[in-house]
Please model this.
Amino acid sequence: MGSQEIPLSKPDLSPLETSLVMEVMQNERLAIGPMTEEFEERVAAYVGTRHAVAVNSGTSGLFCVLKAAGVGPGDEVITTPFSFVASTNVILHAGAKPVFVDIEPVSLNMDPGLIERAITPRTKAILAVETFGNPMHMDLYAEIARRNGLVMVEDCCEALGGACKGRKAGSFGAAGVFGFYPNKQVATGEGGMIVTDDDEIASLCRSLRNQGRGSDAVAKAGWLRHERLGYNFRISELQAAVGVGQMRRIDELIEKRAFVARAYIEKLSGIPDLVLPTVDPQTTMSWFVFVPRLGVEFSREERDGLIAGLRNHDIGSSDYFPCIHEMPFIRSMFGSSPPSMPIAESISSRTLALPFYGGMTMRDIDLVVQTLEVLLGRQAFGRGQ
Model:
C-alpha cells in the first residue's frame, strides 16, 4: 500500500466487515466454518456458477484448477506475457511449460487471432487472464478451447464484477479464479475463490485445498484419512468473514471504483501524451487498477522518471506489468531463443499505474492529474519541445 499521501491502492472496509470478524472471534470457529460457506455461496450466486471453492489465494486457486484439469509434466499451457507473474508461476508449479501469445492493444488481453498458431500436440490448456479487470475476448478464448479440445482456465483474479457480452467474468472457462488481495475490488487480505459448473473440478479442488481429504472426510472417513496428495490452501474464517462483508457490499464497491475511473478518464482525456484505457461497448469493465500509458515516442526511462516524480510528490505509482517472458528466470527457460512479444513489450515499457481505490476523493484525483500534467510538462521542456 505504501505511506504516500495518496497511496497506489487501499482496501475499502466498513463497520460491517469489522462486526463479522468480531462474530467469528466470539464464536471461536477460526477455520472451515459458516463464514467460508457463506462466502462461497455469495460468490457463486453473484457469478452464476454452481460451485465456489474458497482458498487462501488466487495463485493457489489457479494451481488447484490446473491440477484438477490434469495439467502436468510434458504439457503446454497457452497464456499471456502481460500479467502478474502468478499466472505463469502456476503453470510451472504444475510441471507444464508456458507458451506465450502476444496481446492486442485495446483490451491488453491475448490476441485471439494468434492463439491457434501456438497450439501444438502438447497443448493441454489455455490460461486466459482478464488484464486489469477487462474480460474482453473471453468468449472467443472459450470457443477456441472447445474447438481444439483444450481446457480453458479463466484467471479472473482482477475481474470480479466484469462481464463480456452479458456473461459475468468467471463463467467462461472450465473454471475461473478470483483473487482478494488488498488492492482488489473485494479484499480479504489474502484469499481466492475457484468458481465452476464442473462437479468433478469442484470436488477435486475442495480435496486439494484440504490436504487431499475427501469431501466427507470429517463425517465418514475421518480427519486423518487422505485420498490424494493435497495442500494446505484453506482460507480462514476471519478472511472469509471480511469476504462476506465485502460481497454484501459488492455493487457499492464496484460502482465506487467505476466512478473514480470515469473521473480519471474525463480529466486526463485532454492530455495528448497519454493513451487511456479503452473499454469495448460489449464489455463491462471491473476496474481493478487505472493504468494509462505514454505515447510511443516515450522511452522506458522517461516513464520510470514520471513514476519517480509522482512518488517524490507522495503520490503512489508503478509500472503495471513488467513482461513475464523478460524476467530472468523465465527467459532462461528458452535458452538462446527467447520469445518475442513486440506489442506486450512496447506497452509494458510505457504503462503508468495511478492511485486507484474506491475511497478516492475528487481532491485526490485532481491532485494526481495536476501533478502528472506538471511532470509531463517538465519532461517536454527537458526534451526541448
In short: The longest helix spans residues 362-383. The CA atoms of residues 46 and 185 lie 14 Å apart.
